[in-house]
Each structure stands twice: as C-alpha cells, then as structure tokens.
Amino acid sequence: MKLFKRTPIAWLQLSHRPLRLAAALAGVGFANVLVFFQLGLSGGLYDSQKRPIQQFNGSLAVIPRRYTNFGEPAGFPRSRLLQVLGFQGVRGVSPLRLGKLQWLNPDTRESTQALVMGVDPSNPALRLPELTAQRSSLQLQGGVLFDKASKDSAGPVRSRLEQGQAFSTELNGQRTSVNGLFQLGLTFAADINLITSTSNFQGLFPERDPDEIQIGVVQLEPGADASDVQSRLNQVLGPSLQVLSVDELQLREVEHWKRNTSFGLIFGLGVLVGFSVGGIVVYQILFSEVGEHISEYATMKAMGYSDRFVVSIIIQESVILASLAFLPSLIVSALLYRVLMQATGLLVVMSFSRAALVFTMTLLLCSGSGWLATSKLRQLDPADVF
Amino acid sequence: MMPESAPLIEISNLNHWFGDGDQRKQVLRSINLTVQPGEITILLGPSGSGKTTLLTMVGGLRSAQDGSLRIFNEELRETSTTNLTKLRRKVGFIFQAHNLMPYLNAQQNVRLGLEVVPEWLDRGQAAMNERCNEVLRQVGLGERIEYYPAKLSGGQKQRVAIARALAGSPQLLLADEPTAALDKESGRDVVDLFRNLARDNKTAIVMVTHDNKILDIADRIVKLEQGSLVE
Fold first, then answer.
1. CA-based nearest distance B131→chain A, Å
2. What's the DSSP call for residue A2?
3. Which of A75, A78, A112, B113 could be stapled to A212 by a disulfide with Cβ–Cβ 3.0 to 4.6 Å?
C-alpha cells in the first residue's frame, strides 16, 4: 500500500495549527448539531404521531375505507369486527372507540380539545401498563384516565392526583372525575389524551350508536403469518373496510401529517442552513490554507507531484475535518435530543439512518467545499516558484 | 537506458516569448546548448536576461514554443503536461526561496523529494528515512533532522531544500542561486556536494549564480544577455 508509505501531508498540515484545527472542527460540529436539531424536531413531530398506534395491543388493525388519520376516524359497526373472530390465525379482537370533546379547565374556565379513547377494560385495545394496573379505576362510573403528557392548559390535573387529591371537571357538559393517570404522549389530534371504558365512552357520546367503533385491533395466534392473515381478511371484509398491519398504519399516520403540515419544508430549510454553515466553514478554512501555502504547493508541482495529488491533499483535509467533527457532534446531538424530548414531549430519538444521512451529507458537502477551495491550486503554474 | 555518451540536455535554436499580440516580448533568442552527464554548467547574466526562464524550461516547468529542447532524450516542445510532470521527477530543483513545507520537519521535507520517485516509494519508509538522514548529514544538518523550518535559520532552511533536491540522486540538478543564503563555509560544503554528485553519479548540473567564489567548480560558464547566449 503506497498510501501508508507516504507522509500524511494532509493530516500534518491540519494538525500543525491545533487552534485553527479546533476552530474548524467546532464550526463543522456546530453545523452538524444544527442539522441534527432540525431533523430531530421535524422527525419528532412526525414520529410522535405514531405513538398511540405503537401501543396497539395486536399486529393488525381494521379501519374503515374512509379513514384519514387517528384524530378523525370514521366509524364502522362492531359486528363487522366480530366477523373476524374465528378466522384462522386470529386469536382475538379489541375494539377502539375514538372521539373528541371539549375539556373545561375548572380554574380558568377555558376549554381545550381532548381526544377520548374508549377501551374495553377486560380486553383493552391499547397495551399501556397503566390500564391493567388501574382496571378498577377505569371501570368507575363517569370517570376517565388522564395522559400525563397533556398540555398544561388542562389544569393542574397531574399534580393534584399525584398528591392524592381528586380532580373533576366538565366534559361535554357532564361531570367527570379523573380517576388515574397514564403516559402516552400528545399527537396533533388534541392537546389532552383521555382513556375511558366503553360504557363511560357511551355516556360521553350519547348521540353515537353504541355499536359504532373506529378501529379494530386484531391479535394473532402465535406463529400465524401476519401478511397472509391480512390479505385473507381484506378479501373477506370487502371494500368498506381495510386491514393494515400496525406498522403500515403508523406510516400512514406520518404520511398524513407530512402531507397536511409544512413542518417538513420549514425544518428542511433549517437543515439547508445548517449544511451551508458547515460548507462555508470548511471552504473558508481550506481556502486560507491553500492561500497561505501557495508557493509550497507550486514547489510540489515543480518537484513532479501531479495536479491530482496536490488537489487530493485538500480534499483529504476536508474529509478529515468532516470525520473528526462528526462523532462529537453526534454525542452532543444525542444529549440535545434528550433535553428536547423532555422539554417538548415529542418523540425525538437518534436513529442510525439519520446519523448515517448527516454523516454522508457532511462528507459530500465538505469534499465539495474542498474542491472549490482548490481552484487556485489547479490553475497554479509551477514555473512561478522561481 | 541512455547510452553513456548521449547528452542530457540538447537545446537547439530555442526561442521563447511571453505575452500575446502587442505585448509579446521575446525572452530567449536562438539558444543552442548541450550539456553532458556529469557536466557542471554555470549560467551568468544580468537580471531579466532570461536565465530563470531557461532554467524553468530545462526543468520541464514550461513547455517550449519554438525550436528544440530535449532532456533525457525527450523532446519537450509541445509535450503533454502529464509527461512534463513525470519528467520533473527525474530533476532535482533548488529554488532561490527554500519553499519548505512549514508543517513538515526537516526529514519529512526531504522525504517529499523521495516520495515523488516511484522507485523510492516502493522501497518503503525505513529506507526513505535512512536516505533522508544521510543527505541531511551531508549538508551538515545531522543534528537538526526533526526540526521544523520555523526553528531553522535561513541558511539551514536552504540546506534542507538542497537535501530535498539531492535525496533522489537526480540525473539532472537545476539550481537558482543555491548558495545565496549560505555563509562562506557551508556554501563551500554544498559546492563540494555538487562536485561529488557530478563525478560519482554523473549528474548534469545547471546553476544560476552571482557568487564568484564558486565559479571555479564549473566545467563551463555561459552568459545570457538579452535572451541570447554569449559563451
């Protein structure tokens, strides 16, 4: 390998001025963190929409054809879901009722929209541990469980309950007490999440047909082939219903919000700004590096080093900058994500694909900047050293 | 390989111009010069007489426009830049300004002169380092091998640059005022090195100098005046 026999010119040149190297790394690292921040927030906004569906107690979901998103689902008769029972590979079904109501903050008299999820206490459609632990509170007449992640505009529900005090309010004009807490996380659908039993749900939505449900969660027998059951169910249930895997339903939810919100564009611009900052920093550093050493590069050319070799030194430097800056910025970003998640309640997590994307983009951008910075080098006439 | 008797540099009727159109100015006029292996030629002449231009052309830093210029038996007129780059690897250059890489120590700077020669690169780091140290000792810098240029005096830097040019034992050495930055004693040492190289390695040396103290090593002294050679 000729590579390892050679003097590592690029590295020696960069490390010869440690302060400048540190400044360059800080600049590129800062740009990376900026990009991660934007991607984290936009990804978090979208990923958070998956959370209720992630908690489905089953692997398939039956939804009406007209389904748009979790917050605005159309209904279908429960009897259609029961049709699925006894089907080969199906172990059970859990109906989920969904609806929105105005929640009244008793202190401020202001109302906030709440998403109410109605579950069967003996067979809940959601896998939340709090539902099993608080089954008796769930069954209490005229009560709901309250999501700890709900907005503060709901009132001091969480603190009161955690202190062992009662909290009651008006929901749809009906006296309702909060009998317990759970942790799910907000979506764009509403600022408050509530879970209640089927019979309480019917009490809160008296105008609805008691047989109407919004989503049917299907549990499979161990060892059953989910996609096989899914396609057979789709055939049997006909065109008014559709059967999706829980993963597909999550993707569909994210797609819905991507289509109907402009966060992607807003944060995409932020990402662009971040990458530009990184590119400009690298360009500036390498451009001045080339300018300061121009006669030495001319000397190298005069000695018989090719244009390609001399340009590759600068490209190597840009790759070194991109690579060295990446790991620290990844660590800082991961910490930043934890802070963001705590502060916003959004699902902000570092994924391998996001890290790989940012690294690849940084690498490409830095080498591009490096290439631009070498324009002087490529035109350099070695005869000028004399 | 070249036959022993073939000249290393053959210049016949070489003309060269700078600029275009009305600005065009002739800098070399009908130059004829032949240099044999092992021969030391000193090039004299006032500044602006075309010495440096001639030196850069012989070293393959500029391609020839008119006439014929052959080094190592290859015609340099209208040759490709790739070929020029390759030819330069066989030439040792000593520039007026030392042009050392400030981020490389003396040994690494000299090694740059070796790494450009594929045969040396193939021999590996240890062999290259050994050769670098040997040449640095020859120019009197055996104690300064790991010094960076910033820690070396002007004369010492110039000697590192000389070591860089000599390390690959080139068949052709071109030097522009190599002793200008050196004191009397180290100037003499360098001149002795040149003489040994010409004698033992059959290196052809072309040197531009104003230093009267070293004219005695020349086998031949040629003068350039307004672009023409006057012997």
1. 14
2. H
3. A75
Residue A257 has pLDDT above 50, yes or no: yes
- pLDDT tens digits, residue range A215-241? 999 999 999 999 999 999 999 898 999
- Of the residues A20, A296, A312, A314, the best mutation for testing chain B's interface (the one with the most B CB atoms within 10 Å of its CB) is A296
Find which of B76, B101, B105 to mutate to test the A interface (most A CBs within 10 Å of its CB): B101
Q: If DSSP states are collapsed to H, E and C, what string results for A297-344?
A: HHHHHHHCCCHHHHHHHHHHHHHHHHHHHHHHHHHHHHHHHHHHHHHH
Contacts of A155 (CB under 8 A, 6+ apart): A105, A106, A107, A108, A167, A169
* Chain B contact residues (CB < 8 Å to A): 52, 55-56, 59, 61-62, 81-82, 85-91, 93, 95-97, 99-104, 108, 111-113, 115-117, 121, 124-125, 128, 164, 176
Q: Which of A53, A10, A81 is nearest to A252 (CA)?
A: A53
Q: Please give, rounded to a whole number of angstroms, the shortest distance from the CA of B91 to a CA of chain A.
A: 8
- Please, what is the average pLDDT of chain B? 89
Judged against a pLDDT cut of 80, whether residue A254 lies above it is answered with yes
Q: What is the C-alpha to C-alpha distance for residues B5 and B153, in angstroms, rounded to an integer?
A: 41
**pLDDT above 70 (res A386):** no
Backbone angles phi, psi at B90, to 5 degrees: -90, 0
At B163 the three-state DSSP class reads helix
Least confident of A37-41, A348-352, A378-382: A378-382
CA distance A56 to A54: 6
For the stretch B178-202, what's the b/e string if a residue is b when 16 or more beta carbons lie within 10 angstroms of its beta carbon? bbebbeeebbebbbebbeebbeeee
Q: Cβ contact (<8 Å) for B95 and A7?
A: no
Q: pLDDT tens digits, residue range B14-52?
A: 999 888 888 888 889 999 999 999 999 999 988 888 888
Rounded CA-CA distance B164/B155 in Å is 14
CA distance A261 to A327: 32
Q: Are A196 and A145 in contact (CB under 8 A)?
A: yes
CB-based contact, A383 to chain B, within 8 Å: yes
A·B CB contacts under 8 A = 83
Q: So where are chain B's domains?
A: 36-62+86-230
Contacts of A152 (CB under 8 A, 6+ apart): none
DSSP A238-303: -TTEEEEEHHHHHHHHHHHHHHH--HHHHHHHHHHHHHHHHHHHHHHHHHHHHHHTHHHHHHHHHH
Name residues whose C-beta falls within 8 Å of residue B94's C-beta, 6 or more positions apart in sequence.
B161, B162, B165, B173, B174, B175, B176, B178
Question: Is the CATH number 3.40.50.300 carried by domain B36-62+86-230?
Answer: yes
Q: A164-176: buried (b, 16+ CB within 10 Å) or exposed (e) per residue?
A: eeebbbbbbeeeb
CA distances from A367 to A282, A293, A371, A380, B16 (A): 9, 19, 6, 20, 40
The conformational region for residue A63 under phi > 0 = left, psi -120 to 50 = alpha, else beta, is beta
